[in-house]
Sequence to fold (580 residues):
Amino acid sequence: MRGLLLKAIYEVWLVTLLCGLALLLIKALLTYILPQVMTGLSEIFEQLPFVKSLITALLGSETGEQITARTMQAFLWVHPVVLALIWGHEITICTRMPAGEIDRGTIDILLGWPVSRRQIYWSETIVWLVTGVCVISLGFIGHRLTAPTMPDEMRPELDGVLLVMVNLFAMYLAVGALSLLISVVSNRRGRAVAGSFGLVLASFLLNFVAQYWSPAKPFAFLSVMTYYQPAQILEQGDFPWRDVLILLGVASVAWLVAGEIMARRSIRTV
Amino acid sequence: MLLNSVMKHSAKRHVIQAERLTRYYGSRVGVSNIDLEIPPGQVFGFLGPNGAGKTTTIRLLLGFLRPSSGRATIMSRDCWNERARICQQVGYLPGDVRLYPWFTARRALRISGLIRHRRLWQFGHELCERFSLEPTLPVRKMSRGMRQKLGLILTLAHKPQVLILDEPTSGLDPLVQDELLRLLKSLAHEGHTIFFSSHTLHEVEQLCDQIAIVNKGQIVANESLASLRKQASRSVTIVFSAASIAQSIEPPSVLRVESRLGAQWDCELIGSPQPLIAWAAAQPLADLTIGPANLELVFRRFYHSPGKDL
Fold:
């Protein structure tokens, strides 16, 4: 396992570092400019009422008539750039094996070593989890670096932020496990990446559209974003047990199924 | 059940064994009813044209592909179910070696050593020197031949009992090819079993004791090199003392005359040379040349054997 992990580190350290640093900067920047956005928000809502609907839809939940400063903090955790960085990183990691290895032809070297496919799968899982913690933690650090610049009434409470991070990590697990599942049934990395991005994009759009368009509402439960509710967590301060358990359930089932397929499938080069 | 017990008994004597090994790709047949029995220390040549099923057979032996039917074992272990254990004792060189671009010989040997729980650097370094490969050069800066050398080093560094080599000389210059063949011969001499897949007759002829020829997914011949040589015809050139004699004489049954030009016949010898020599002694000949056994003709015959269309 040590050899497999060392190999994985050689392959993922750069992309993890770049994504982590990018997230740190973005979160620091968003945290810094959020109070300034909030200052003129009421005027913007009066002049352009649809902006409020857009923000409500982006936050993915009914925020009531008033979008409070606390609710707006959730914007830091659902900003499309933030989600794109986190998803981009994990899709890159989770489609490396076997789709990526088959695609570039290195699977022969990997399977020529005396390691079982389950060992390979475990090592990839460890790398996916550890790098995910690193990237999300760097985002958290970025947020905390500039949080002191916020006015007192806007400054997020650490407890609430940590609960949001737990919810975010649960979503990270669900999306990553689904990417692993797509990867183990693919021979081409491009297809696996496209499938995974298609999944998260559809999920994001479904959650967004369901706020506006009532025919889409019955299907909103299919979106992983439905179970990621930073606005509610920050507003109410409760741990979202139901959402986190659903996300962990999806992640566990997808991960187990992907592992079984990986252990049993024939590996053909393309 | 019966197949399993028969294979278990027989596998004690054979390092690599396959019985009715078949693999379909959808409705297309990759290989069909492949039977192999390779004893320890044998250098087994696996010859066939491109797309004949050589690589599919290798991938079945290494447990990359699940057989559609039949079974293969290496050192009495099932190739599909016990792949990881088998790979402890196997060195595998893929046909088209693709390595991680960040690999250097040093890094690759370190990782391979950690995975195999063995120190590979000492022998690996010797191999680097033998093949003239810089240990710190990354794969992304290597030529195709250098990548092939690194692939070979990784295959050989742990001194495996069984070597499975899929066209190992491709991309290597003639000097390195010779070096590799010398190394493989010495390994075979030490008792290592070598499964050598190739479509180049010359190197198989130089190295192998036993040769299987695969065509259209089926083994069409599986014989010792000596036996194949016996089947090989020889070219014969006969020069008579006068052109008129050459035109009037009837050839013996062991000779197939391919051309007659003046006093000279160019022929193919079918069977043993003794009857020819006896016949020649009674003829007014100016010269007689019998060439070496030409295996290429035998292989061409097998390659073009109609077989089943798969």
Observations:
- The interface with chain A takes residues 25, 59, 62-66, 83-88, 90-92, 94, 96-100, 102, 107, 110-116, 151, 154-155 of chain B (CB under 8 Å).
